[in-house]
Specification:
This protein is an alpha/beta fold and about 675 residues long. The chain has 27 helices and 21 strands. The N terminus and C terminus are likely disordered. It binds a DNA duplex (15 and 10 nucleotides) through helix 4, helix 24 and helix 25.
Length: about 675
DNA sequence: CTGTACTAGACCACT
DNA sequence: TCTAGTACAG
């Protein structure tokens, strides 16, 4: 019997718990390793045991770097390791690529001429920067879509695309955007990968330091890595070659964000001596669910051939239901959940309700509320994206980095302080002339004898500058940040601002104030958390900026139904899974197909990921009609439904008369298939 | 400079 | 339906 004695003294007997392939994956520690891990093949288990095994072989935790793609996956992995070893590993780094990028930048960004107090701009901030930049250089954005522009900038920055006829007119805008980022001492999400690459490739001794430090690298969800992330990985691990990547090409669902399946081929080319391990045995789902999933995914071309099989037998059929509209859909889902809870003792937290887009969440949430089913939702707008919270964050960011014009512009007049357009224009003029930030320009304008500002404007401005200058050292001290913030909220009288903004609706004002209190609590518990090694203002801000979608409900997931997007569900599993809105235009999403017809394969993988989240039972719902924006539209069932072998599906009949031809046709079709298959 | 009222456009996924 | 942006009056 093999066992490994981990530092903690915990004995790990994994041979009994793992199959031979899994064991091999756990035991192959040195050199390049490629693990192809099908859905439900125990991947997370393998990764955690592998880390435990490495520690058991005397590899220090600080030498191991485990990278994933989403926050959720990173948390999941860190939690599993902790659970397995029964203790926290403070020096083991399990993080997203972006968070790891921040870590490097905090240590090294000065080499590129930034200060380590840099701000990180999320999409919102990028958007305001873009607008502001355009205004400044008199570039009309009327003809271009802002998001498209940002996407183009991203492709340019990451080297995914070159300037072409489409993007060339944006050339000066892009450069101005970049200049501003630098002036404001700010970076965007792409920079979090791009700048570390620049540092590692320009400064050999720095790169060597990191290579020595992280001598074992593990990458989860490798199929979702971008070319940039691969390059980053190569710079870090290309020499010592102790790089283990784990992935499944069938679950690649992030190509829109730069994920590139060619990384897999590149990895094989770069490390021709790699050990390849394929995990094909599925431990998660019933045979029925697995067969349904296989039926769907087999329609994709260009797959690395893989045959998932399961030791378990049969299982309940996949149930397909056609509700009248999205409200009936919510009712059906609630009824089923309640029924199973009652009859089978199903726990609410063992249920996952998956949706393609956040917009589908509303009707379901309303249903859960009406039926008193506790739920939690992940994805969508995070707590930190809420307006009132972003205001607080902007105050903190400006204190951390006074050159951050985007944050300054957000709060300069929030609450209203009488600093108007005229004053702002004068300040911007001054800032531009001297090549300084707005906050510096404010100081300059206040100090200047011949200031063009009116005395009223001087007073208003002076109040703001004094406010920031007073709270800045307090927040920077890193002590009692929560109290400081709380005092500031009182001083700026944010409550009155909320009340005046929501005169008609006092409830909203109260709700927002409550959110701010919640935020202050978060700051407080962050400060008190003994596990945060670096409890300063910057670290806090960086951390929450990367937490764009994950909600802060880490506390109690017990007893709550999980409502989330399919993207967010990747890597998770549930006893019972509902996939809502299995309609043409939603899965596959119309917008995805508009972009490119070939995106159908990724949409299919998305559906595959949704199906394979289920252990025992799978329900698919497909509305007859649905309200989209203003109007009610008739729905057509998703074409992917036909790819599920007919014998596996059971139609849940509805007692509502069939009104629409399309729906009727589809019904007939399903019934015919049903008859043919002889069920 | 502020507040209100009106209009257009948004809903695809994550860091 | 909701929000962000703009026009205009005070």
């Amino acid at each position: 019997m093999r066992a490994c004695d981990v530092v903690t003294g915990v004995k790990l007997n994994y041979t009994e718990e793992l199959n031979p392939e899994q064991c091999r994956a756990v035991e192959t520690i040195d050199g390049p390793v490629l693990i192809i891990a099908g859905a439900g093949s125990g991947k997370t288990r393998v990764i955690t045991y592998r880390i435990a095994n490495m520690l058991g072989h005397g590899i220090p935790q600080s030498s191991i770097l485990a990278l994933t793609f989403t926050n959720k996956a990173a948390h999941e992995m860190a939690g599993r390791v902790r659970e397995l070893l029964g203790r926290k590993l403070p020096n083991l780094i399990v993080s997203t690529f972006h968070a790891f990028g921040v870590r490097i930048l905090r240590e090294q960004i000065h080499r590129l001429g930034y200060r380590d107090s840099f701000s990180i701009y999320d999409t919102h901030d990028q958007l305001s920067l873009l607008k502001q930049t355009a205004r400044e250089i008199r570039f009309s954005l009327d003809s271009v879509d802002l998001y498209t522009t940002l996407a183009a900038f991203s492709r340019i920055k990451t080297g995914t695309a070159d300037w072409d006829d489409q993007t060339l007119p944006l050339h000066t805008l892009y450069h101005q955007y970049q200049t501003h980022l630098r002036l404001y001492n700010a970076v965007d999400f792409d920079d979090l990968i791009q700048l570390p690459i620049a540092i590692l490739s320009q400064f050999g001794e720095v790169a060597d330091g990191y290579r020595r430090r992280f001598s074992y690298i593990l990458v989860d969800e490798f199929q979702d890595t971008s070319r940039q992330q691969y390059r980053f990985l190569q710079l870090l691990g290309g020499r010592h070659r102790n790089v283990c990547v784990v992935g499944d090409d069938d679950q690649s669902i992030y190509s829109w964000r730069g994920a590139d399946y060619r990384n897999l081929l590149q990895f094989e080319r770069d490390f021709p001596d790699l050990q390849e391990i394929t995990l094909e045995r599925n431990y998660r789902s019933s045979n029925t669910i697995l067969a349904a999933a296989n039926g769907v995914i087999s329609h994709n071309t260009n797959r690395k051939s893989k045959n998932l099989w399961s030791g378990s037998d049969g299982g309940s059929p996949v149930e397909l239901y056609h509700p009248e509209d999205e409200r009936a859909e919510a009712t059906f889902i609630c009824d089923r959940i309640k029924g199973m809870a009652l009859k089978e003792g199903l726990k609410y937290h063992d249920v996952g309700v998956l949706i393609r887009a956040n917009s589908l969440a509303r009707a379901l949430e309303e249903g859960f509320l009406a039926e008193n089913i506790p739920y939690r939702i992940s994805g969508g707008e995070s707590f930190f994206q809420r307006k009132e919270i972003k205001d607080m964050i902007s105050y903190m960011r400006l204190c951390a980095n006074p050159d951050d014009d985007v944050s300054l512009l957000r709060i300069m007049n929030t609450p209203r302080r009488g600093i108007g357009l005229r004053t702002l224009e004068q300040l911007q003029e001054l800032a531009r002339a001297r090549g300084i930030s707005l906050f510096s320009a404010m100081h300059a304008a206040l100090a200047a004898e011949d200031s063009p500002l009116s005395s009223r404007a001087r007073d208003d401005l002076g109040g703001f500058v004094t406010l920031i200058d007073t709270y800045r050292p307090k927040l920077l001290s890193g002590r009692r940040m929560a109290e400081t913030l709380s005092a500031m909220v009182t001083e700026i009288d944010y409550w009155s601002y909320l009340v005046s903004e929501h005169q008609r609706n006092e409830k909203v004002a109260k709700w927002k104030l409550r959110n701010i209190e919640l935020f202050i609590d978060i700051v407080r518990s962050y400060e008190r958390d003994p596990d945060t090694l670096d409890s300063g203002l910057f670290h806090f801000l960086n951390r929450i900026t990367l937490q764009q979608r994950d909600n802060i409900d880490q506390d109690d997931e017990q007893g709550k139904v999980n409502l989330m997007t399919i993207h967010a569900a990747k890597g998770l599993e549930h006893e019972v899974v509902f996939v809502a809105g299995v309609e043409d235009g939603i899965i596959p999403h119309a917008r995805a197909l508009e972009e490119h017809e070939r995106n159908i394969e990724e949409e299919r993988r998305l559906f595959y990921v949704a199906i394979t989240r289920a252990r025992r039972r799978l329900f698919l719902t497909c509305c007859r009609q649905r309200k989209v924006m203003r109007e009610v539209i008739n729905c057509v069932p998703s074409p992917f439904l036909e790819e599920i072998p007919a014998g596996l599906i059971q139609i849940s009949e509805v007692d509502i008369p069939v009104e629409h031809d399309e729906a009727a046709d589809y019904f007939a079709m399903i019934k015919a298939r049903f008859a043919r298959s002889g069920v």
